[in-house]
Amino acid sequence: MNHLLRDLAPVTEAGWDLLDTEARERLTPALGARKLVDFSGPHGWDRSATNLGRVDGLVDGPVEGVEAARRRVLPLVELRVPFLVSRDELAAGDRGAADVDLTTLDEAAQLIARAENGAVFHGWTDAGIMGAAEASTHPPIGLGGDVEVYPRHVARAVELLLRSGVDGPYGLALGPEHYRAVIETSEHGGYPLLDHLRKILDGPLVWTPGVRGAVVLSLRGGDFLMESGQDLSIGYRRHDDAAVELYLEETFSFRVASADAAVALSS
């Protein structure tokens, strides 16, 4: 038995398969940051910190004449979103129902995905995470309200990265509203805006809930590093006659190795 305590839940093996499959289907498109940064792991629930390869010198050693330093690490953070599932719905799933109501799980998946994406791109001060957009050494570029001029802004961002010696290909993380505007728009002559942006980037546009505006970043590797301890998993908390209380949980750290490898496009 591990810390998720799934063996204690009144959920059958088929029920867990149903829950895990639903979570995977909802999380895969929503975890946009993972499609654009270097992802390492999962390394396990007991992974507590990321090695930074640096030290802080200590003024006094334990004995006179002995030099000392303390190694620096970045602690992993834990995210958890609880949700309730009806026991009647779980029983219906065991009987083969194709329309099991897992709305609460879907909502939890979207919430934790927004939290992860937001931390990666905009940071999380209390967790010691500096996001890719806020760490950028480049001034943010305003997107404005005219979606048809997005290619001009993205091209400018790519040029800023090239001038800094940051090679491509490049990716574009778009918040939901901006992503929807892009896919709904055709330029003069009927050419899809989505395809134009892909040609400028030589890389993907990624729907990324939790991103404010958009971020252009290099996909060359080694610039943005996400480390997973426990990857997203469903655990058990308690139950009564009507419902089972579960939760989605993960641990991770994120760090920026090259602050000049991303450009924020502000709303």
Describe the structure.
By secondary structure, the protein is of the alpha/beta class. Helix content is 30%, strand content 29%. It has seven helices and twelve strands. The protein has helices at 13-30, 87-94, 103-122, 132-135, 150-163, 176-183, 193-201; strands at 38-40, 49-58, 68-75, 77-86, 141-142, 170-174, 205-207, 214-218, 224-228, 233-239, 243-256, 262-266. Strands 1, 4, 9, 10 and 11 form a five-stranded mixed sheet that branches. Strands 5-12-8-6-7 form a five-stranded mixed sheet. Helix 1 runs parallel beside helix 3 and helix 5 runs parallel beside helix 7 (193-201). It is flat, with a radius of gyration of 22 Å. The protein starts with 12 loop residues before the first helix and ends with a strand. 36% of the residues are buried.
